[in-house]
């Protein structure tokens, strides 16, 4: 009888360890994500790496450019930082950095046209790609 009581006591003790672990309290607020300063990241890159990022944006947007051989900052486009990327084939592309890291690519003529008239709900000049 002592053996049966001892055995049942051990089984209950073993089962007590099998309970589900306590679930964390359900938080209604999503976890905060750190804000990334894409402009600082772009500006901190050495010139050749920055040009490679601009080349990738131009290529990802579907435009022609064999290589970006230089780039220069330009006036903001609709309040967003922008650069002119100079391609090897003498074409220039305007690369606009959005706050979420996306890059918009357009010709200077397209940017001038978009600045001449108010934006109709979109800041996308032509094509887009993501910054590093």
**How much of the sequence is in beta strands?**
25-35%
Q: What is the percent of helical residues? A: 25-40%
For the sheet with most strands, the description reads: 5 strands, antiparallel
User: How do the SSEs run, as a string of H and E?
Assistant: HHHEEEEHE
The count of β-strands is 5
Mean pLDDT: 79
Rounded to the nearest angstrom, the distance between the terminal CA atoms is: 72 Å
Overall 3D shape: elongated
Physical arrangement of strands within the biggest beta sheet:
1-2-3-4-5
Taking pLDDT < 50 over at least 5 consecutive residues as the criterion, the unreliable ranges are 1-15, 121-125
Radius of gyration: 28 Å
Number of helices: 4
Derived structural class: alpha+beta
Outline of this structure?
It contains four helices and five strands.
Write the layout of secondary structure elements.
Elements: H1 2-16, H2 38-44, H3 47-60, E1 68-77, E2 80-87, E3 92-97, E4 102-106, H4 108-116, E5 127-130
Antiparallel strand pairs: 1-2, 2-3, 3-4, 4-5
Report what the structure shows.
This protein is of the alpha+beta class and 132 residues long. The protein is built from four helices and five strands; from the N terminus they run H-H-H-E-E-E-E-H-E. 34% of the residues lie in helices and 25% in strands. Strands 1-2-3-4-5 form a five-stranded antiparallel sheet. It has helices at 2-16, 38-44, 47-60, 108-116, and strands spanning 68-77, 80-87, 92-97, 102-106, 127-130. The protein is elongated, with a radius of gyration of 28 Å. The N and C termini lie far apart (72 Å). The longest helix is centred in the N-terminal third of the chain and has 15 residues, at 2-16.
